[in-house]
Design a protein that fits this description.
This protein has 509 residues and is an alpha+beta fold. It contains 20 helices and 20 strands. It has helices at residues 3-10, 31-37, 48-52, 76-87, 97-104, 106-109, 128-134, 155-158, 167-181, 240-252, 288-294, 306-318, 364-369, 378-381, 397-415, 419-431, 442-445, 447-455, 463-478, 486-508, and strands spanning 13-17, 43-46, 58-60, 65-70, 91-93, 120-122, 142-145, 160-161, 190-193, 199-202, 209-211, 213-219, 222-228, 257-264, 270-277, 324-329, 335-340, 345-349, 358-361, 385-390. The protein starts with a helix and ends with a helix.
Length: 509
């Protein structure tokens, strides 16, 4: 994110719909978002119901300046009223009424992206006869909607037209749509050419077909955050070239805050399915806290800022914590990890626990500026990160710092002078992978084993005793006496004993 946009994003306000029955509380449908954004931004409330009647009723924090609305969709004329009433209070919504209408209504943005979105034709009428006139000369499958919404969850009854030359079925579907939309029908009737999309199944409630789709939020011409539209906890399967294409689309948008909905066709290409004003677009599978953190700490590709990561690693290391951060880069199939230790920081390719994929650096600055494994330079390539995972201690760290201090102090009291033993054991056990048969990510699996081994040890434990503890613990956990025989565990035990000796020696100096 460009510096000027980052500074604007950090200082922006938010305004939410209030609860219809308790106007001093947020609408329950936006409770999680309201709580998430309140960590970093000033938040106000307003009564949607009063606005419908032409009145502005504000609650919550006093705000002024640039503000993003998060709430229910508004007709374009209602948004214009809202914008002007707020402006009279010194509050300026991020999108002007003209910008809101352009991307809220399909005819506003269609011509700018014609060819990258399904062929569409529309009128300004709600009359079934006028709608049927649109069908003249059309062939194949179509979808009916208004300027804003379809009734996709009533797929076969009021949305999908299998063959538009079938006059009887076309009349049935369009007529159902018009009648069911009723007074909520906005603008007129739109017919969109049906595209064959890569299917991922059917909606669990409505039974409508669902496809590989993505929702992308764009802030001032740059990708703010994106995720799957339907699939929860699935990876975003967008290539380097596709990401560049999305960036080029984002740069053409003539509004400050917009969503782009993309879908993958059966031929593998992405297509723009919808655009919308970002203020009235749902988060879909995007986590509320990640969404609002994007305005503070994140740039392209749904990541934390480099400054935030470095600062949190430093703070956690000071607390005698060993923070771990996993990174995935666009166009790279490997996953990488940063681990902070008391006297150095490590960068490694995940899955290489023999040390061949690991490089140690004395300082964080040295790590971030160096050419690393696979030609990665964190400082240069940070904007190529498409996924980032960190221990819970790193999430919203600035708001949880005191909590983690107390937790670490409590752990240190329980362990006493034995806590370094656990850290030494854990590090060596995490590297250990006899015959390559252990799980791919041992540190996700073996914390319990490492804890129990360390609890049965002391500073005088011999290599043989440590090997026996490892053998017993892993035989108990995995039930394979041969794989975890005493002989197999000797080298790991020796590494642990050597690390303990070095620790004792350093303490004496």
């Amino acid at each position: 994110m460009r510096l000027e946009n980052f500074e604007i994003a950090k200082s922006i306000n938010f305004i939410f719909c209030s609860h219809p029955l308790n106007k001093k509380n947020v609408d329950e449908n936006y409770m999680e978002e309201y709580q998430a954004t309140g960590l970093d931004h000033a938040c106000a409330l307003f009564s949607y119901e009063d606005l419908v009647n032409g009145k502005l009723s504000l609650y919550g924090e006093d705000i002024e300046g640039l503000t993003i609305y998060r709430g229910w969709m508004m007709p374009a004329h209602m948004y214009e009223l809202f914008y002007n009433l707020l402006l009279g209070k010194g509050i300026q919504l991020i999108n002007s009424p003209k910008e809101y209408a352009k991307y809220h209504l399909l005819p506003g943005w269609y011509s700018d992206f014609e060819g990258a979105t399904p062929f569409s034709i529309w009128n300004e009428s709600r009359d079934i006869r006028a709608a049927l006139e649109l069908t003249e000369g059309l062939e194949g499958a179509f979808v009916v909607k208004d300027y804003v919404k379809s009734r996709k969850h009533e797929w076969h009854d009021a949305c999908f037209i299998k063959d538009i030359s079938d006059k009887e079925d076309t009349f049935r579907v369009i007529n159902n749509f018009i009648n069911r939309q009723g007074s909520n029908l906005e603008g007129g009737i739109v017919l969109r050419k049906f595209e064959s999309l890569k299917s991922i199944g059917y909606h669990k409630d409505s039974g409508m077909p669902i496809s590989e789709e993505y929702r992308v939020f764009v802030f001032k011409g740059e990708i703010l955050i994106s995720d799957n539209y339907w699939s929860e906890n699935e990876e975003v399967n967008i290539s380097e070239d596709e990401y560049i294409w999305i960036e080029s689309i984002s740069g053409k948008i003539e509004s400050n805050f917009v969503t782009i909905d993309l879908a993958r066709k059966t031929d593998g290409k992405l297509i723009i399915m919808e655009m919308g004003d970002g203020q009235v677009s749902g988060l879909q599978q995007i986590d509320a806290y990640e969404f609002y953190r994007a305005f503070q700490n994140q740039g392209k590709g749904n990541i934390y800022s480099i400054e935030y990561v470095k600062e949190v690693i430093k703070e956690l290391v000071k607390m005698d914590f060993e923070p771990e951060l996993s990174l995935c880069f666009r166009g790279n199939e490997s996953e990488y990890m940063i681990i902070g230790y008391a006297d150095h920081v490590s960068f490694q390719r995940c899955g290489y626990y023999d040390g061949s994929g690991e490089i140690d650096y004395k300082t964080l600055d040295e790590l971030f500026e160096s050419e690393l494994i696979d030609g990665i330079c964190l400082k240069r390539d940070w904007n190529k990160i498409v996924d980032i995972w960190c221990s819970p201690s790193m999430i919203d760290f600035e708001f949880k710092k005191d909590k983690y201090k107390k937790m670490i102090e409590q752990n240190n009291q329980e362990w006493g002078d034995r806590r370094p033993i656990f850290k030494i054991v854990k590090k060596e056990i995490d590297k250990w992978n006899p015959y390559g048969l252990l799980p791919e990510f041992p540190n996700d699996e073996f914390d319990g084993e490492s804890t129990r081994i360390a609890l049965d040890m002391d500073w005088n434990s011999t290599t043989d005793k440590i090997a026996k503890l490892i053998s017993n613990e892993f035989t108990f956990s995995f039930g394979d006496e041969y794989m975890f025989s005493l002989k197999c565990c000797i080298q790991t035990a020796k590494n642990i004993r050597d690390s303990m000796d070095r620790f004792i020696e350093n303490k004496r100096k």
